């Protein structure tokens, strides 16, 4: 999972125990404890915080001990020039998948992987999931279908940003599509660079110097995502700013392929979800788009790695990981 032979370094902060182990090339030997998350490389920290961005009190610690741990936590964390702060999102799996890429890609040339602090909060996971489900009436409860107030989500994310800044990180990323709906609000006033996944993928596509598929036509980029992400509109905004024409699924495609694909996925009907996703992608591709931004981790993971349709898609998470590594390289070079 992580490249390089290394012994794991873990900061003891008196919060609920996580999975710890020794990291070896191509495999991880785990010693499982309560609330398993992931083994981490040296000089990195994995945290599970509450919605206020604080470390939860340990059942084995006194109130004064817990308070001391929270107030002193920032001084315990790594403070290297390339330390990355990561705010987990709606899916722990997708967050860890992003982390895996960040670690592997940053150390692929034999160097050290980037130091990081990963902040995970189950309350935030549930808040984001409820927001996403509220945009799919067939998947949501009556309560969720009513207009949601996203203020608590924004406040939670802002507290995570502030916590990471106090922890000494020098750059912050959110490997979560839904969280970017409020990126401007969350990043406002940040003391460190706060990368935007939409900007990262739009910049990469711009630098790729694509050619229109039809002579005299503009460069077209398709976006396939959940209703919540498409409604937020940040991918469309960032792509249009770079001069692309954005092509979205029409109402019929959403109603008859995208939404049913998500419903099938939630029923564990992977073959049905996969077939519906292929149809949705083909509908976009016949509209002469150069590529499709597949802005959904569930959708992206449905297709086999060797699927021809997947080769015509780009994953914004990959762009975010590469941009984070590029930021770190720039810092190291002093540019």
From TrEMBL:
Residues 43-69 are annotated as: Disordered. The keyword Isomerase applies. Residues 60-69 have a biased composition (Low complexity). Pfam families: Asp_Glu_race. Keywords: Isomerase. The keyword Isomerase applies. InterPro entries: Asp/Glu/hydantoin_racemase, Asp/Glu_race. This is Aspartate racemase. Residues 43-59 have a biased composition (Polar residues). PANTHER family: ASPARTATE-GLUTAMATE RACEMASE FAMILY, GLUTAMATE RACEMASE. It comes from Vitis vinifera (Grape).
């Amino acid at each position: 999972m992580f490249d390089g032979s290394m012994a794991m370094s873990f900061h003891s902060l008196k919060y609920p125990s996580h999975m710890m182990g020794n990291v070896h090339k191509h495999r991880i030997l785990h010693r499982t404890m309560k609330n398993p998350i992931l083994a981490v490389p040296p000089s990195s920290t994995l945290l599970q915080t509450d919605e206020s961005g604080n470390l939860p009190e340990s059942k084995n610690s006194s109130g004064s001990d817990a308070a001391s741990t929270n107030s002193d936590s920032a001084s315990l964390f790594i403070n290297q020039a390339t330390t990355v702060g990561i705010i987990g999102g709606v899916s722990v799996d997708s967050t860890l998948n992003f982390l895996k890429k960040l670690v592997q890609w940053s150390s692929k040339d034999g160097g050290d992987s980037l130091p990081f602090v990963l902040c995970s909060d189950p309350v935030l996971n549930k808040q984001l999931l409820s927001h996403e489900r509220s945009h799919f009436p067939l998947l949501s409860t009556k309560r969720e279908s009513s207009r949601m107030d996203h203020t608590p989500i924004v406040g939670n994310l802002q507290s995570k940003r502030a916590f990471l800044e106090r922890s000494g990180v020098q750059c912050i990323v959110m490997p979560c599509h839904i969280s970017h709906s409020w990126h401007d609000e969350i990043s406002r006033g940040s003391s460190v660079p706060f990368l935007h996944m939409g900007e990262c993928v739009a910049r990469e596509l711009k630098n790729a110097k694509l050619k229109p598929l039809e002579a005299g036509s503009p460069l077209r980029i398709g976006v396939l995502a959940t209703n919540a992400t498409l409604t937020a509109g940040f991918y469309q905004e960032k792509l249009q700013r770079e001069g692309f024409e954005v092509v979205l699924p029409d109402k019929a495609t959403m109603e008859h392929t995208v939404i049913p694909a998500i419903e099938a996925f939630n029923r564990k009907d992977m073959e049905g979800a996969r077939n519906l996703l292929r149809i949705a992608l083909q509908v976009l591709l016949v509209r002469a788009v150069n590529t499709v931004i597949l802005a959904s981790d569930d959708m992206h993971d449905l297709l086999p790695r060797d699927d021809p349709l997947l080769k015509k898609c780009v994953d914004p998470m990959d762009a975010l990981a590469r941009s984070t590594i590029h930021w770190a390289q720039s810092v190291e070079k002093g540019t």
